[in-house]
Specification:
Strand content: 15-25%
Strand order of the largest sheet: 3-4-6-5
Distance between the termini: 47 Å
Radius of gyration: 17 Å
Length: 171
């Protein structure tokens, strides 16, 4: 049985967190994720890879509606496996492609656009504010994933660097 969010919106402040943890949210006929997203290593990793290697899109589909997706791009198989693992752990159903991990789900799109806004294009990218409020492990997982995507280490030059087009990430 499904209940429209609009019917319960006003009552949410009165629902105990322990009860809310059992809830799942999603689109009417689509995939559902937990109503409470725990800010842990997996969400930190997912958001780090999104900021370094991801984008989201909403496009008109052949049925007259819209299709939503989040894409995490990378050629490295090990990195794509980690992208798959953290996406699965959040409750998404990612698909492993040759050059990317695709998540064709509206809830993934809504997460990176509205819940943890990170930007869409490389020059718009930013660290979602919630990352600053998490524990050290979650922040470290975000930074490690970001480094795996947009960083490099040169042992000869003894240099570590991160690259970005985003002024918000630089500052």
């Amino acid at each position: 049985y499904q209940v429209s969010f609009n019917k319960i919106r006003g009552g949410i402040p009165f629902v105990e967190d322990s009860e809310m943890e059992k809830w799942r949210i999603g689109t009417r006929n689509g995939h559902r994720i937990p109503a409470i997203i725990k800010m842990d290593k997996n969400i930190g990793t997912f958001l780090g890879y999104y900021v370094s290697e991801g984008y989201h899109r909403k496009q008109k589909n052949s049925m007259g509606g819209f299709s939503y997706s989040v894409v995490l791009s990378n050629y490295n198989t090990k990195i794509k496996e980690e992208m798959m693992d953290c996406s699965n752990s959040i409750g998404f159903k990612p698909v492993h492609k040759k050059k990317a991990v695709n998540i064709s789900q509206k809830m993934a799109y809504l997460m990176v656009k509205y819940i943890f806004p990170c930007g869409q294009k490389s020059r718009e990218k930013r660290v979602p504010e919630d990352i600053f409020l998490t524990d050290k492990t979650t922040r470290a997982s975000f930074l490690q994933a970001y480094f795996n995507g947009d960083g490099d280490y040169n042992p000869t030059a003894k240099r570590t660097r991160l690259t970005t087009n985003s002024m918000q990430l630089i500052n």
